[in-house]
Amino acid sequence: MSTIAFLNIGMHGHVNPTLPLVAELVRRGHTVSYHTTPEFQDEIEAVGGTVHLYRGGDQPFPDPPTPLTWMEALATTAVRWLPAVLSDLRREPPDLIVHDSACLWGAVAARELGVPAVSSFTTFAFNREVPSPTHGSKELLDAARKRPRSLQGYLRSRWELHRRFAAGGLPLIDVANIRQPLNLVYTSREFQPAAEDFDRSYRFVGPSIGARPADPSFPFDRLQDPVLYASLGTVFNADPQLLRTFATALAPLGGTVIVSTGQSDPDALGPLPANVLARRFVPQPDVLARAALFVTHGGMNSVNEAMYAGVPLLVVPQGADQPMVARRVVELGAGLSIRTEDVERGAVRALARRLLHEPGFRAAATELRAAQHKAGGYRRAADELEEYLREAGPVRQPVPVDPSPRG
Fold first, then answer.
1. 311 near 288, Cβ under 8 Å?
2. Are 82 and 105 in contact (CB under 8 A)?
3. Relative to the CA of 25, which of 16, 248, 359, 398 has its CA 20 to 30 Å away?
């Protein structure tokens, strides 16, 4: 059996899809190590991974979270974390490195060690037809002019990576789109835009959804159909009044309306109709299995889980890749979209009523459900990794490394 090292960025949307895959690899007899932040230690250990915590400070979340500030954060984090990461990996040499498509330090570590690498795409795969948020664009150039310090910070860190480590061959700008000879994409080919334009190195394995610990505190016995569910995720701080608008707009249409408030205190929503249940966190896959409608920010994990359950969507994108996800949902007829600035009770209720009563939305969601299941999920991803290991053969010789600045 093989030793497989996962390197990721410390965000739920990037870590969560890998957890069922780690569990499956461990079940098959592989040894899995996982470099992560403390927030995810318990979850990773629960599925059998050996955790190595990043040293050298937390990964900064950019404020504001724009493509340019995200590029700067990724590059500076790579410089800070790589020495300790490489030290850990040399003590327990892996046969394969699996890194997130935005994890610069994972790609550099693979080059330093001469180890085969796989890229993990937890959103869409990207190319010219489907540009990533960090692709070279007029918007990125305008942002660089307005935030010269962020540009300088990014360029300085990239130069440090080039001087100190084997960072050749990585994208100069498009650091959210680091590709490898094998790229796992956690959605179905049917949901991926322009899927026909991607070569065989991209494997659309579908949502990686595994069993999660039961939440005995959640009152499933109180739910009345139809169950309507609203959540804006955990990355963007949802305005409590926005969540309140969803709750009061949906209440007349549903038996039970569930609102996940994330980082917001449920009490901040104020008094709510009797059939509204507001909680910070809910067991989302289990709730979606009961739901007739999902109001979502359009994060890829949430949308994948909704499509896996065949639930029509009302998408309210907040940022990042979410507008792109929203457009795809609408294109395929599985839902509708509304801008945050257009959210008000009457508009939300009218859109929700359409989603509940016009059969085309449920039919499209049902078709996507079949595609998501057929793609294979975490078991297919594990198969692809094992096949890649067989094809890669013996581990290559590592690149000689001097951790001090070069030149």
1. yes
2. yes
3. 398
Residues 6+ apart with CB under 8 A from 87: none
Those residues with Cβ within 8 angstroms of residue 62's Cβ, 6 or more apart along the chain or in another chain: 69, 70, 72, 73
Report pLDDT for 404.
37
What's the pLDDT at 263?
A: 83
Q: What residue type is assigned to position 101 of the chain?
A: S
Residue 193 CB contacts under 8 Å (≥ 6 apart), including other chains: 124, 129, 130, 324, 328, 331
The total of other beta-carbon atoms located within 10 Å of residue 395's CB is 17
Residues paired with residue 230 on neighbouring β-strands, in sequence order: 259, 295
Crossing angle of the two packed helices 240-250 and 345-357, in degrees rounded to 10:
50
Residues 6 or more apart whose Cβ sits within 8 Å of residue 276: 247, 248, 250, 251, 256, 257, 258, 259
Say what the pTM is.
0.90
Look at 168-177, 318-327, 344-353 and tell me which has the smallest mean pLDDT.
318-327
pLDDT at 234: 63
Element of type H or E holding 12: helix 12-15
pLDDT reading at 399 higher than 70: no
pLDDT of 63 reads 61
